[in-house]
Amino acid sequence: MDLRVLSDVLVGGLAAGAVYALMALGLVLIYKTTDVVNFGHGDIATVSTFVAYALAVQAGWPVLAAAVAALGFAALLGAVVELGLLQPARFRQASVLGLVVVTLGVGLTLNGLAGIVWGHDVKSFPFLLTGPPLRAGELTIPVDQILNLAAGVAIAAVLYAFFRFSDLGVAMRAVLSNRTAAELVGIPVRRVFALSWALGSVLGAVAGILAAPILYLEPNRMVDLLLRGFAAAVLGGMDSLPGAVAGGALLGVLENLAGTYGSIDLKASLAFVVIVLVLVVRPHGLLGAGRVRRA
Amino acid sequence: MLELEGVRAGYGGVDVLEGVHLRVSEGEVVALLGRNGAGKTTTLRAISGLIRVRAGAVRLGGERIDRLPPEAIVRRGLSHVPEGRQVFGDLTVAENLRMGAYARRGRSLRDQLDWVLELFPVLRQRYGQLAGTLSGGEQQMLAIARGLMARPRVLLVDEPSLGLSPRMVHTVFTVLARLREAGTTLLLVEQNAFRALGVADRAYVLKGGRVELEGSSEVLKTSPEVERLYLGA
Among A59-68, A94-103, B6-15, B221-230, which stretch is predicted with the lowest mean pLDDT? Predict the structure, then answer.
């Protein structure tokens, strides 16, 4: 076994895993606070990435500015879905399954809109950073992988600090822990729900924008990314933010190992294998709280 | 300080409260008694905005609060310590107390925190521990302490002795007596009528969603009607 190939595989796997982890973090955040698995997550990410594409490629903005604007769009879109659709549905006593179906409908609608506006031909998306790869001894790391890793680590650290130290972050955990008690201490629960949708959608959009230069952009391209994010979330326990990060990193590395030392077909289907195996063997994942809701 | 006037409220279109009148003056401890299903908890939930008041009025310090959402009611100075404690199990004791003061975040919590920890020394020992790992009695202490962190003008406490060991019940009532001495305005719902009357100045007895009886604790303690209500004769 060539050690240099192995280390390339590991670093590349972690770089891909960082994107899966961001996708998973968005899913887990929304699920944790609002109890809803967001099946529109991938399409919200797709449409937000298309907004970045429209601004950067079609309108000629600097890529970074376009990306930041697209994140703002994602936040708004997430909050609108929660405030405009899910809260009225909850007010009318919709079941959690009903709410999940609403997110599925949102996803399909956004997918259709993206097809109408931008068409189905595959578009190339610019890298956020370009430059020579980083060399460290035998190791060569492309700049986009460095960006993925840096973004993953930085966002995970910011989220950790936010949930640990800020009033709003602790309040979001409080809502998740006990909704009635949260209302009684004066936490505006509905606004917290909207905030976690906004934040979760931003995380998905970051993943989409980081992945688009490599995956290319087309309305259905993010399905794979959503499923990998979902696998990472399930692997991590679905309700654990550190678990989502660990799950993403692990899945990225496993995929690369499978692709390099096994077959490319194995790499493509590994996410599904992970989802099925985890749900069968250890439903609360690596770091989940073990409070699995049974259907 | 707190006044209910003909309050009707309930769940899913059915009124549990059929016109409740009661008042709690500043610095007064008032007990709300009655059998299961009489509407005690519903009364507290209507006051703190967890359920909608369908008719009548709730006033806090003279101001109508019956149309406000719970978070606005907390900000006006009313804390509700719910039945079954309802601590944030996945948060530490410290974080629970911090969330108790959410309505006044941004201001210094130091004095209030010192006072609360002095009132409940056990919480100082458990400060960094997850609230879910506390015993039932400790969780009850935490729930009351969390309610006090908001510096309420009125504190509602629902069934603080429910499910606790006799020793813990004693501790909880010792704390309530101390709050009374500190001049806290308190509305207390309690199954254990004679314990409640021991700490309260006055009491209301609810039956079928209405006030059946009211009077000073001294009078009610010896009232055959209270006994009759509780024995269900």
Answer: B221-230
Which of A167, A173, A185 has its CB closest to that of B100? A185
Question: Is there a contact between B82 and A186 if contact means CB atoms under 8 Å apart?
Answer: no
Which positions in chain A touch B157 (Cβ < 8 Å)?
none
Question: Which pair of tokens denotes residue A178?
Answer: 């006990």
**Number of domains chain A is built from:** 1
Is the CB of residue A289 less than 8 Å away from at least one CB of chain B?
Answer: yes
CATH topology assigned to domain B27-52+69-231: Rossmann fold (3.40.50)
pLDDT tens for A186-220 read 999 889 999 999 999 999 999 999 999 888 888 88
Domain-embedded: residue A19: yes
| ipTM (interface predicted TM) | 0.86
Q: Read off the pLDDT of residues B165-177 as tens digits, 9 standing for 90 and up.
A: 888 888 889 999 9
Q: In DSSP terms, which residues pair with B3 in a beta bridge?
A: B23, B59
Residues 6+ apart with CB under 8 A from B58: B2, B3, B4, B5, B7, B46, B47, B64, B65, B66
- Look at residue B183 and give its three-state secondary structure: coil
Query: Model's pTM, two decimal places?
Result: 0.83
Q: Min CA distance, B218 vs chain A (Å)?
A: 33
Q: Domain holding A219: CATH number?
A: 1.10.3470
Q: Using an 8 Å CB-CB cutoff, list chain B residues near A178.
A: 86-89
Does A272 reside within a domain?
yes
Look up the domain containing A43 and give its range.
3-125+143-281
CB contact under 8 A, A185 and B75: no
Helix, strand, or coil (residue A117): helix
Does residue B192 come out as left (phi exceeding 0), alpha (psi in the -120 to 50 range) or beta? beta
Q: Are B32 and B213 in contact (CB under 8 A)?
A: no
Q: How far apart are CA B65 and CA B47, in angstroms?
A: 8
For residue A237, list chain B residues with Cβ-Cβ distance below 8 A: none
Please indicate, yes or no, if residue A286 is contained in any of the structural domains: no
In a 3-state reduction of DSSP, which class is residue A222?
A: helix
Q: Is residue A208 part of a domain?
A: yes
